[in-house]
Amino acid sequence: MNKLKSLAEVVWVSTLLGLTSFGGPIAHLGYFHNVYVKRRKWIDERSYADLVALCQFLPGPASSQVGIGIGTMRAGLLGGVAAWIGFTLPSFLALVLFAFTMKGLDIGATGWIHGLKIVAVAIVAHAILGMAQKLIPDRNRATIAIAATVIALLWQTSLSQISIIFLAAIAGLFLYRKSTVTDLSEIQVTIKRDIAVACLVVFFGLLFLLPAIRELTSSHWIVMFDSFYRAGSLVFGGGHVVLPLLEREVVTTGWISSEEFLSGYGVTQAVPGPLFTFAAYIGTIMNGWLGAIVATVAIFLPAFLLVIGVLPFWDSLRRKPKVQGALLGINAAVVGILVAAFYNPIWTSSILAPADFALAAILFGMLAYWKTPSWVVVITGALGGVAISYFQLV
């Protein structure tokens, strides 16, 4: 009975967070801290900090992984699933409904959709600025970031993203192999190691087997699941970095148009919850409700498998200087990948005239300096796009 009560409590609290957590991954961690640590006291300050550190280390949506971890600690593995469902469901439903309103419309010709594309310019530029300040503070990491940008722009294939991350890890391992690790507290976990190992086996098994199954069967659903699973498996640095990965999976293959892609990304900024629910919008455009469910499960599954699989081993792993060095290189490369995505497809598809750049500058200022809520920025961008369209017609 106590387990059911704890499970119901996890569902209720995580759903409230899913309805109210605006502002992106960093803001989500602030909401989580206020609710889970200060108000509910489900986890202490030290354990929360360690869990956040783990989720920042892993690929995937950090805020969702923190929620999964806390839900698991509170109510077991089902608690982790419940925490994910509660936090994800509100934005999932909102983006599915938006996608259904967009299907069949000539959205590329509407001014407010163009405005949403300009919103994406401001939001990604703001993300790049914040990440660059933290992740490339010295010449070596700046060099890695620039190299990653060049490679990502000039070598646009399905192998480019993982190759950049792999090379950056090697560079970081070499350049920062003597990194020192200080002030690390001990993290307490209750997950059995055999369950953790099973999750890691499933994660890597799907990552390597799905492409082979995809080639053998040519099933549309296998192809779709593989594309979203791979995107969710290779995202280091937060939800914004999933943009180039998904763009190459769904736009270059012709599954959805660039206009549909960027307008959906803009709307994703206006809803609470994780940015990864952008996959629900794409899945709906492609295959309706079933497509939304498949895309969402596929892109979040790696995050769940990794956080459950690595948590019991994290305390000893994170103390190794070589791991810290590789991570520094990977984080620098993430900035470069995001810069490349900022140019193509975001800038090239959105900034078509001086008025577009002027609107993007205003929106960037609202985000970076006036600390305007993201939903206000999205509405302003949509209205600005309508105004630009109107004056161009007059």
UniProtKB/TrEMBL annotation:
One of its GO terms (molecular function) is chromate transmembrane transporter activity. One of its GO terms (cellular component) is plasma membrane. It comes from the Bacteria. Keywords: Cell membrane, Membrane, Transmembrane, Transmembrane helix. The chain crosses the membrane at residues 12-32, 77-100, 112-132, 144-175, 195-216, 228-246, 289-314, 326-345, 351-370, 375-393. It is found in: Cell membrane. The keyword Membrane applies. It is a multi-pass membrane protein. Its main location: membrane. Belongs to the chromate ion transporter (CHR) (TC 2.A.51) family. NCBIfam families: 2A51 (TIGR00937). PANTHER family: CHROMATE ION TRANSPORTER (EUROFUNG). This is Chromate transporter.
